[in-house]
Design a protein that fits this description.
This protein has 116 residues and is mostly beta strands. 0% of the residues lie in helices and 49% in strands. It is globular. It starts with a strand and ends with a strand.
C-alpha cells in the first residue's frame, strides 16, 4: 500500500510562488495517473492538476489554475510536484496528492495560504 506525504505549503502574498512535493512510500512508476487535489474551507475537494503516463505524460488542469500551476513527477524519487506561480487568495486550501483512480489513503495534506 502506497502512502503519500505532502509538503512545501506555506503562507505567501498574492503573486508569489510555492512548490509542493508529494513523497510516496513505494514506487509510483506503475501508477498511470497522479493528481493534485485541494480543499478549501467549506468546499468539496477538487482535482486541480493531473498527469498520466499512458498519454505520454500529458497533463490536465482545472480552468482556475491553468497557466499558473505545473504538475510533474520523478518516478526515480517516487515524488510528484506541483509548481504554483502567480498565486491568488482563492488558491488558499489544503493540497493533497493521490492517484486518479483507486485512491490510496489520503495524506495529511499541506496548507497553502495566499494573502492579498
Amino acid at each position: 500500500q502506497v502512502h503519500l506525504m505532502e509538503s512545501g505549503g506555506g503562507s505567501v502574498q498574492a503573486g508569489g510562488s510555492l512548490r509542493l512535493s508529494c513523497a510516496a512510500s513505494a514506487s509510483i512508476s506503475n501508477i498511470n495517473g497522479m493528481g493534485w487535489y485541494r480543499q478549501a474551507p467549506g468546499k468539496q475537494r477538487e482535482l486541480v492538476a493531473s498527469q498520466t503516463i499512458s498519454s505520454g505524460g500529458s497533463t490536465n488542469y482545472a480552468d482556475s489554475v491553468k497557466g499558473r500551476f505545473t504538475i510533474s513527477r520523478n518516478n526515480a524519487k517516487n515524488t510528484v510536484y506541483l509548481q504554483m506561480n502567480s498565486l491568488k487568495p482563492e488558491d488558499t486550501a489544503v493540497y493533497y496528492c493521490n492517484t486518479l483512480q483507486n485512491f490510496r489513503p489520503w495524506g495529511q495534506g499541506t496548507q497553502v495560504t495566499v494573502s492579498s
